[in-house]
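User: Can you predict the 3D structure for this chain?
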Amino acid sequence: QVQLVESGGGLVQAGGSLRLSCVVSGTIFSRKTMGWYRQAPGKQRELVARITSVSTTAYEDSVKGRFTISRDNAKNTVYLQMNSLKPEDTAVYYCNAVTNWDQALFDSWGQGTQVTVSS
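Assistant: Here is the predicted structure, written as structure tokens:
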């Protein structure tokens, strides 16, 4: 059974930084494209960054140049470094594996980690 455990969120002022972590178990992590998703109140969950098994990365336009996704296969962990945070980045952040069509691979999600950016 796949388990996804996110951490690292918090309350930060606009312009600040946070680093999110997601530990994954129950799957062959190193072979998976992994992604960070976020869901703001009243909005659908969206994919904001993904990283392939060979560490090729891609970002949603609104976070390009500010967020960096990385992975440590030895620790089964994917990270999201978030810099120059904006109030519109406020959301619950989740990780999941990503399919070729940018859909979440696993039906089950972790608890997420709340990121709140104050203006």
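The CA atoms of residues 13 and 118 lie 5 Å apart. The beta strands are 3-7, 10-13, 18-25, 34-39, 46-51, 57-59, 67-72, 77-82, 91-97, 113-118.
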